[in-house]
Amino acid sequence: MVAVIDYDAGNIRSVEKAVLSLGGSVKVTREREEILSADHIILPGVGAFGDAMEKLHSYGLVDVIKEAAMRNIPFLGICLGLQLLFESSEESEGVSGLGILPGRIRRLPESAGLKIPHIGWNSLQYPNPGRLFEGIPEGAYVYFVHSYYLEADRQKIVTATTEYAACVHASVEQGNVFACQFHPEKSSDVGMRILRNFMRITAA
Question: Which of 40, 79, 169, 173 is catalytic?
Answer without folding.
Answer: 79
